[in-house]
Amino acid sequence: LIVGTMIFLGAVEHALLVIPLPVALWGWGVRSLDSEAADKG
């Protein structure tokens, strides 16, 4: 039970570290595309 809890907490911590990266990159990419579209339009 303790080992399973440690693995679960480790996975959650890893997810919290990894997930924000693609979200930030995606948000930055969308903003850059929107700014380009605004310049053209």
Give a structural overview.
The protein is an all-alpha fold and 41 residues long. The chain has a domain of 27 residues. The protein is built from two helices and no strands. The longest helix has 21 residues. The protein is rod-shaped. The model has no long low-confidence stretch (mean pLDDT 86).
Nearest-integer average pLDDT? 86
Gyration radius from CA atoms, angstroms: 18 Å
Helix-strand sequence = HH
Q: How is the main sheet built?
A: none
Quick rundown:
The chain is mainly alpha-helical and 41 residues long. It contains two helices and no strands.
Notable characteristics:
single chain, 41 residues, mainly alpha, rod-shaped
What is this structure's SSE topology?
Layout: H1 2-18, H2 20-40
